[in-house]
Structures are given as structure tokens and as C-alpha cells.
């Protein structure tokens, strides 16, 4: 179960005066947000993707520094103590977080910075970045979501049940977000994200 954890104030960042923009993409596990993000970055190389830090082990095909920065639990806790994270939380026994200065420097430089993070992290960021563009990705239905999670072949029956239970709770939070996109048809969903992202920055 994810545990939301406190972060230090970003009062000195003056995000609302920055020329760039922060965009947060979230949604339940298995909804396809990672695949949407990869396609978005391929189409729009001017976007800056902030790579998260995690204490979990890499999955097959994942690359250090591209998918995540994989570090030890003790190292992660050292970074917490130093206030290095913009947001962080614990999910399924592992820490996940976004490095503060990396994101702030890119926003200040005028970049559109995109984060793909968990729900609790998205909530934390919105507290301190009131002008963040928040996008929630929804599954067409829970049968399809279960099919996608099973199709990854990475989870036990117990883990799948936990993910689906959590997904039902996460979907209830969709109304908190600026934009909701149903990932039924991939191209349609991707176009909806592009329209929302670039129109919001015009």
C-alpha cells in the first residue's frame, strides 16, 4: 500500500513566475501511461522527461537513467533526509521519488517538463505547484485493465489482485485532475494528451 510522505516546502521556487511548465501524468498500474509517455517523447523531443528514482529492482528491458534511476533503500533515505525530493512515496514496499533540483532547473529554463508518477506523488506536487497541468489516464474498463496487467507477465496472482484493488481506489481520484483521458484507442488517447498539453501552453 502506498504511503504518502511529507515533502519540504517549495515556497522559494516561484514556479508560477517560471517560463516553463510542469505536466504530471498519472493513472493506475497497467493503464498504459508508460507507453503513452514514450510515444509522446518520440513525437515531441523538445519535452523534458524527468526520470524518477526508485528502490525496486529493474524489470526486463529497463535501462538505468532512462526508465528509472535504481538506487538502494539506504541511499534513497539519505536523499530524503537532505530534502532532495520534490515528491516521494512508498508503493508495494519500494520508494519512488522525483529529484527536486532537476525538475526546477528545467522549468526555470523554459522547458515543458513531464513526470509520470504515482497518484500520491501527483497530489503532493499539485500542492506546491498550483499551476501544474495534471492528466489522469483511465482504463476503458477493469476487465481490460486486468488483461493488460496479466499480459505483462510480471506479477503473481496476489500482486495482480492488489493492483486491481488499488486501481479501483485510484480511479475515484480522477476528478481531482485537470484532464481525464481514457486509454481505449491508443492513438486517440495520445492525441488527446498532445492537444491538452500544447493548448494549455499556448
What does this protein look like?
There is one protein chain. The protein is of the alpha/beta class and 202 residues long. It has a single domain (3-200), classed as Rossmann fold (3-Layer(aba) Sandwich). It has seven helices and ten strands. The strands form two sheets. The chain has a five-stranded mixed sheet. Strands 3-8-2-9-10 form a five-stranded parallel sheet, sandwiched between helices. A hairpin with a 2-residue loop joins strand 6 and strand 7. The model is unreliable at 1-18 (pLDDT under 50).
CATH class group: Alpha Beta
Could you report the average pLDDT, rounded to the nearest whole number?
Answer: 86
Unreliable spans: 1-18
In percent, how helical is the residue content? 25-40%
- How large, in whole angstroms, is the Cα Rg? 16 Å
Based on secondary structure, the structural category is alpha/beta
- Return the CATH topology: Rossmann fold
Output the CATH homologous superfamily. Answer: P-loop containing nucleotide triphosphate hydrolases
Distance between the termini: 38 Å
Strand order, sheet with most strands = 1-6-7-4-5
Oligomer: single chain
Strand content: 15-25%
What letter string, H or E per element, gives the SSE order?
EEHEEEHEEHEHEHHEH
Domains counted in the coordinates: how many? Answer: 1
The best one-word shape is globular
CATH hierarchy: architecture = 3-Layer(aba) Sandwich
Helical segment count: 7
Largest beta-sheet characterization = 5 strands, mixed
